[in-house]
Amino acid sequence: MTKIIFRSAFQYDTILSELAGHKLERDVFKELDVFVSEMQKMWDEYNDIFFSYFESMGITMPAIWNVYPIHSNGKITSFSEPTTLIMKENRDEVIATLVHEVCHVFCGLDQNDVVLSPIWERVSDAYKEEELVVREHIFVNVLARAGLRRIVGQEKAEALLKMEKDYEGLEKAWRIIDGSRSVAYDEPLKFLEELTEEN
Ligand SMILES: [Zn+2]
After folding, report:
1. Where are the domains of the chain?
2. 4 bridge partner residues
3. How far is CA 70 from the centre of its chain?
4. pLDDT grade, residue 199 (50/70/90)?
């Protein structure tokens, strides 16, 4: 099963910060170390539950997956490859972002094509008038919601997702998802199938 490892990569943090026009002081790397160890401890509680859930659907990742937290620099947002997360005070929010980015990774790996491609084609076709970023996020958000519900529970997951529903690029995708009659929140592939049937 996959294990996520949080990495304290201060050179990476520094370079991304410099690209965004910020210079990180040497002493802030301590913050990176503390953040990494706290997040690792928190994620370790969820790791096996999360990946065994997706494995049960035939969705997998490499055995070790590194995740790189960085300081907020006002420009760069979190992204999936290499999995890079903005450090935030609210650790639950970081977990929600990690789940989102990991779901992008699932979609980008050839090993998941057998399971994900047929349903992606249906989503992409059903919403072909939407921009690619919207279509991708219909797919990713439904997977991420299911994964987050599995590890933090329904109530907390929905509260965390509420925050991202206003983000540019995600807002339209969420509106489409939330408009669905499907209630298969914990069976994301079924949810997506039902969603495409409604359109
Ligand atoms: Zn995304």
Report:
1. 3-108, 110-198
2. 65
3. 16
4. confident
